[in-house]
């Protein structure tokens, strides 16, 4: 049970940006692939390996595609915050095995795929990614 | 004054006599003593009817009574308290306070442009307009001419005061823009429609205000609107201006210092006007802010230091803009972190100025569709799931309260937003997902919402206003939002 005492201890010892160590089969939080705007040590250590990451499917850029963008929070578009759609820094491009069966942007999913690092521009959408999951599936 | 004194003495005597008739467990209780202390503090209040040399208008965007309540608990809990008993820096008896009606001329639910405009001009405005009155219509450039309002900043600058803006949003965003701009559309941040000659875009108006000497310091986000399209911004992104105007060069040519990060910010001289833009769009949420970006308190300190050099005084508007954005995202953890540093900025502004000559007004522009579930025990983490009420002691029980669906629920819910439990792929039916306390306490957690909307909305509910310094006692009762201008205007002009 989560008690007030454990909450206080946890919040004092590890403020909002704590990065837990992960077991091999654990679902990774998307934010843990990044360290501020750079890639995290965790991401570098998992390059080329199959990992599972949780997050949200952003509304697809293109119909009938084998590509979507995973975001750490639901990708809400706020007309009073932004004058145009803006991508957050910490996202994950996902190339799927099959044509994407769209999941609403506010339903949490777990995506499994092989982690690829380095710049890649999607030939169809022009979307530039620095981190990707390929050969991916999700549930 | 004499009558007030006599009444006060009578009140004290009555309270004391009454206490003697009470059982010890009542009159000796800490609650009873604290209540008496509060009464003494209120009786000891002295109205400051001097002239205000300086005015600081502090606006936490979207921090209505409900959001402010949640921030109070969050800040208290971060300090190791249960939370409910915490007192934010502007909630002491040193501040006068009132409730504020925030609606716009044509909107029950307000937006941040006309609300900030009301506080800066003394008249309510129409939805999405900034500082246009009369017959001005949103998005219609032909209605600008002749409908421009004069701002508080323009009035006091003409009297020799310095003017500053600080924001965690883009400096061209609604709340800071209301200090210096007049526009038929709050979104015309770096361009106006083709053929529109009655006004320039908001960024151009800001640089005009700086080069003309009306605006002396501006700190916040939004560099891309000052840089030509196809050109890199000092922050490493891309410029956005389609007209190709290089406003940062124009500012530099006029002798305005520029800083794009904390290091440059710390190296600024206090002798020339200052423009600081840390990001291409809004600054980072406080929960995510890198050390290269000055914080809201850093900006507050430098702005007051800079403006205080003017012997004739200053007007400074400070906005915590991202409290609003995190609420729009339905993500209270980020609302709370931005709210917390906001409260620290208020405390800092108060510390750095004198109550004798500085009127500080602390308020919000509007509330959000935020709501609070019950019945939670004391000390329940405000962003987390609702614990039950323990029968003894103060702190909550360790059992989570369950709703009729057998699932726990967070203290905070949003009435609408992207945290909606209704699913598009299920014909907008929904089932509340199971949530653990650990998940609910995560910085990325969205409190559950009902009505599905990609962005949670503002609400028309009242906000509070708190004030300290000359004529702060005029902040009282339930007032229209535009009255805030009139308090400031009276305070700086009274003979």
Q: What is the compact description of this entry?
A:
The complex is a heterodimer of chains A (139) and B (495). With 139 residues, chain A is mostly beta strands. Chain A is built from two helices and eight strands; from the N terminus they run H-E-E-E-H-E-E-E-E-E.
For this structure, the CATH topology of chain A is OB fold (Dihydrolipoamide Acetyltransferase, E2P)
Low-confidence stretches of chain A: 1-24
Largest sheet of chain B: 10 strands, mixed
Considering DSSP H and I runs of 4 or more, what fraction of the residues of chain B is helical?
A: 25-40%
Instruction: Give me the CATH fold name of the largest domain in chain B.
Output: Alkaline Phosphatase, subunit A
Structural category of chain B is alpha/beta
Shape of chain B: globular
Query: How are helices and strands ordered from N to C of chain A?
Result: HEEEHEEEEE
Count, helices of chain A: 2
Radius of gyration of chain A: 16 Å
- Counted beta strands of chain A: 8
Identify the CATH architecture of the largest domain in chain B: 3-Layer(aba) Sandwich
Sheet having the most strands of chain A: 5 strands, mixed, barrel
Kindly name the structural category of chain A.
mainly beta
Distance between the termini of chain B: 20 Å
Q: Kindly report the average pLDDT value of chain B.
A: 95
Described by the principal axes of the CA atoms, the overall outline of chain A is globular
Which radius of gyration of chain B do the C-alpha atoms yield?
24 Å
- The total beta strand count of chain B reads 17
